[in-house]
Design goal:
The radius of gyration is 30 Å and the shape is rod-shaped. By secondary structure, it is mainly alpha-helical. The chain has helices at 2-23, 53-63. The longest helix has 22 residues, at 2-23. Helix content is 52%, strand content 0%. The protein has one domain. The mean pLDDT is 78. It has two helices and no strands.
Length: 64
């Protein structure tokens, strides 16, 4: 009989824990991930790409 009570307590404990996890998830999973933003000028991702219109105007002004 004591073994049966221990098994019921363990099962009930797991059920309560699972139900709590489902009803009240961890706050880290509730907030949306941060939105990606474009890299800033001069960022290594942008090196080797074609210059923008504003960058071309600056380069033209500096060269002339």
């Amino acid at each position: 009989m004591p073994r049966l009570i221990r098994e019921w307590r363990a099962t009930l404990g797991r059920a309560v824990t699972t139900l709590g996890t489902v009803l009240y998830p961890h706050p880290d999973f509730l907030c949306a991930p941060p939105r990606p933003h474009p890299p800033l000028p001069g960022h290594p991702e942008l090196l080797g790409t074609a210059p923008s219109r504003a960058e071309r105007a600056v380069l033209r002004a500096l060269s002339g």
